[in-house]
Amino acid sequence: MTTAVERIAPFKGDHVGSFLRTDRIKHARSQYAKGEISEKQRRAIEDAEIIKLVEKQKAAGLMAITDGELRRSWWHFDFLENLSGVEGFEPNNGLKFAGIETKKHSIHVTGKVEFNKEHPFLADFKFLNEVVGNRHVAKQTIPSPNMLLVRAGFDTDIYQTIEDLVPDVIMAYQQAIQAFYDAGCRYLQLDDTSWASFLSEEGISSLQAKGMNPEKLRDICKRVINESIAERPKDLLITMHICRGNYRSHYFSTGSYDAVSETIFAGLNVDGLFLEFDDERSGGFEPLSYVNRDDLCVVLGLVTSKFPELEDKDVIKKRIAEAANYLPYEQLCLSPQCGFASTEEGNLITEEEQWNKVRHVVDIAKDVWK
Questions:
Q1: Please, are residues 362 and 13 in contact by the beta-carbon 8 Å criterion?
Q2: Domain count across the chain
Q3: Tens digits of per-residue pLDDT, 61-108?
Q4: Residue 2 included in any domain
Q5: Which domain holds residue 37?
């Protein structure tokens, strides 16, 4: 069997996926919201900006190319709202991050959850794949199925509990994964903030306040991931990005991976893990010792996407060496800890600073993995 290390990706210098929305994108989306331009006109502008973005990624030295999530407002809601049985709505409050509150938006389940064969992300990927060409790899990012379980409320009698929803979520994602594969996708990333709830006492208390059993929910999250990807084609690489929140350069939660090390590193059947390690909130590398496969790649998010200052190259190389005490170099990669714009607002950096960060990752990776 071909191992993840031998496959095309993750690349030694990789990235999570989202990029800052350009001024032209922001203006077009504002015009569309006001009814000043049509959907076709807005999409034509998005197409043009994505083509430019693809070329910038190539010029920066990246081999995995995304559309930057330029068509999305949110990293997760845009995908989930286009599943049958899921709708967006405006709650009373946004989500409270450290020092900031997000804009008001959420989702709830209003009917039987199914994958929509006309899901707009499929057309988005086909466009990206054509633009990227054969010398690079088009990477598709979507929210993990766990995000529907932990973020959506119920506004239907079809499901009474999270457990009731699990089989349909798994089926929907199995169909989604096959649909992306049929569209030409060979590198798919699941973005997941649900694991952050298990990493701190505050997160555990929050789950319990909602009437959830943390240990039971952890096992459900593991099952949903593994069963959703169980039937994937052998030449489709699936990674997961585990995040603690990223909204306008603010974070949502803290905590090391220790509390769920065995589940994440020895229990998930993904091919690679993109992990935050850009500051003390993420703890040390000791949890990597739980990795029990030589075909699992761990992408170290040691370069922050939140702030413009470039990390000292020697410090990053030293931290990679520290991680190599627990996992061989050949199973390690490097990336920013998160995307640059998990929502359309983007982090508090400039486009030039964003590309400086990307080139920084690529340059360090070239030095380390010669």
A1: yes
A2: 1
A3: 999 999 999 999 999 999 999 999 999 999 888 777 767 788 889 999
A4: no
A5: 23-368
